[in-house]
Specification:
By secondary structure, the chain is mainly alpha-helical. The chain has helices at 14-44, 50-53, 59-94, 99-114, 117-127, 132-158, 161-169, 174-204, 216-224, 233-263. The protein contains 10 helices and no strands. Helix 3 runs antiparallel to helix 4, helix 6 (132-158) packs across helix 8 (174-204) and helix 8 packs antiparallel against helix 10 (233-263). The relative contact order is 0.11.
Length: 286
């Protein structure tokens, strides 16, 4: 009896499948044991006592968390829109045929992409004396915009060279080639990378609590440092973390869904073709 094979690897036989099953069971047991150990530590240190979870039953605490969540989404909305706009401008500069524009855009992209986000936020907030929300949005915009500029530039270069050459052969100018040929094709390819970078921007909004911006993490910090409820740090983490993870997973799921759709082959609509007519005989020449 021969073992079936695929083009890339041999299909596992009975012994290999049994070995993989054992590995899976051992890994699952280890993960369950780790989770049980963490739960034991939480119960043993009294993290699930009623005193630590009482704050979340009050309307004021709930309003504080909702207000912080709203501020987080507001900062993310501003930063994402401005990052996309800045990324488009910098990418246009890097793709320019004028050396001055290209070098200036390259310098800005490399500088802001290499600079830590927290350093830029603190510099804008402390040195320039900007309010917390604009300082947070500006820092996120400069960093994520420079990264998105590289995503845009790479996406345009990823389009087949023949598309560009065919458009120029038709007499189109560079602006028309970029607007009508290259950019529409590049956007479909780089959309998952754009959404993935927006996930980074969403997570980085939590840096706002370091400059006293009243976002979601800042609200959690106020609750966790409350002595009246025995410093409910772990309960705050258990409440805030799933919300952050849920928002990031939602954006990541959207990026995966977009990437899956882009990997599908384009469907062509069937066209009815008229049957061929019998050939017409040419008259004989005398």
């Amino acid at each position: 009896m021969t073992t079936a094979t695929s083009a890339l690897y041999d299909i596992p036989g009975p012994r290999t499948r049994q070995r993989h099953l054992i590995y899976g069971l051992i890994s699952t047991a280890v993960l369950l044991g780790l989770a049980a150990w963490i739960l034991y530590l939480l119960f043993d240190t009294g993290q699930f006592t009623a005193t630590k979870w009482t704050p979340f039953a009050y309307q004021g605490i709930q309003d504080l968390l909702l207000r912080g969540l709203g501020n987080t989404l507001k900062a993310f909305a501003y930063a994402s829109v401005l990052s996309l706009a800045l990324g488009a401008v910098l990418a246009t500069g890097r793709l320019s045929e004028h050396r001055a524009f290209r070098w200036t855009s390259t310098l800005l992209v490399e500088f802001f992409r290499a600079m830590p986000v927290l350093v830029m936020i603190f510099f804008i907030f402390v040195a320039l004396k900007v309010q917390p929300l604009p300082a947070l949005v500006a820092g996120l915009t400069l960093y994520n915009g420079s990264v998105l500029a590289e995503v845009f530039r790479t996406g345009v270069h990823a389009v087949a060279r023949g598309q560009r050459e065919a458009a120029y052969a038709l007499g189109m100018r560079k602006t028309q080639v970029m607007t009508y040929v290259l950019v529409p094709q590049a956007v479909r390819a780089m959309l998952p990378a754009i959404i993935s970078q927006l996930v980074v921007a969403l997570k980085d909004t939590s840096l706002g609590f370091l400059i006293t911006y009243e976002e979601f993490l800042h609200a959690g910090k106020l609750i966790a440092s409350n002595l009246d409820y025995d410093l409910p740090f772990i309960p705050v983490v258990l409440v805030i973390s799933p919300i952050y993870i849920g928002m990031c997973m939602l954006l990541s799921w959207f990026a995966t869904w977009v990437a899956r759709r882009e990997r599908r082959s384009p469907r062509t609509k069937a066209v009815d073709v008229a049957p061929a007519e019998p050939p017409t005989l040419l008259p004989d020449r005398e």
